[in-house]
Amino acid sequence: MAFELPLLPYGYDALEPYIDAQTMQIHHDKHHAAYVEKLNKALEAYPDLAGRPIEDLLKDLESVPEDARTAVRNHGGGHYNHSLFWKVMGPKGGEPGGELGKEIEKVFGSFAEFKKQFSEAAGTVFGSGWAWLVKDSAGKLAIVKTPNQDSPISQGQVPLLGIDVWEHAYYLKYQNRRPEYVEAWWNVVNWEQVESNFSA
Ligand code: MN3
User: Fold this and answer.
1) Residue 132's domain is classified under what CATH number?
2) Spacing, Cα 10 to ligand 1 middle (Å)
3) What percentage of the chain has pLDDT greater than the value 70?
4) What does this protein do (predicted)?
């Protein structure tokens, strides 16, 4: 058993002009692929762990032997986070509806206010990391940030939506202008997937 790079659920150019095809290709085929490869390498000596879902390992990092734990946290986190990232994006964009739409209004006041707070979080991640909309352990919506490839799933939270703010996610098109990338990214959020993550 080994972890596998999932297929991108759309073409490299599907998120143009907001996210360029070259960035998508390198991000998926090189960066994500490297996380999978290094995760598999780290678990070569632990075939029983390599057969478990990555969610299980990240939810309980303490159960991973110490000599593989950092690799699972970093590369396993990278694999899990990116697998979610590809799915919560799509060419359609729009706004959240259904129960999630209502809950966002209830917790943040409005979708616009949620967007503002989430964008602020994404803009203020120091260095490489992620901003997330999660369901916290009490089931309440919250915006959180994680450094590196740490995943909210390791903190008892359920990640619903995440934005990768590592420079590799935007540098070719936006260079140092992370806020422009974040603003453009809202056009490619796949809210149907985020809603389904919320109701799961
Ligand atoms: Mn990335």
Assistant:
1) 3.55.40.20
2) 17
3) 100
4) Destroys radicals which are normally produced within the cells and which are toxic to biological systems.
Domain that holds residue 65: 21-87
Q: What is the pLDDT of residues 156-188, one digit of tens each?
A: 999 999 999 999 999 999 999 999 999 999 999
CA of 168 to the centre of ligand 1 (A): 6
Half-sphere exposure of 30 (CA within 13 A, CB side): 8
- Whole-number Å distance, alpha carbon 19 to ligand 1 midpoint, is 13
Does residue 147 come out as left (phi exceeding 0), alpha (psi in the -120 to 50 range) or beta? beta
Can you say which residues are annotated as belonging to the binding site?
A: 27, 82, 164, 168
Residues by chain with Cβ below 5 Å of ion ligand 1: 164, 166
Determine the distance separating the centroid of ligand 1 and the alpha carbon of 32, expressed in angstroms: 7
pLDDT in tens, 182-199: 999 999 999 999 999 999
- Supply the pLDDT for residue 86: 98
Counting every residue, how long is the chain?
200
Answer whether residue 1 shows pLDDT above 70. no
pLDDT tens for 87-99 read 999 998 899 999 9
151 vs 148: CA distance, rounded Å: 9
d(CA 113, CA 177): 22
CA of 12 to the centre of ligand 1 (A): 15
Q: What is the CATH number of the domain that holds 51?
A: 1.10.287.990
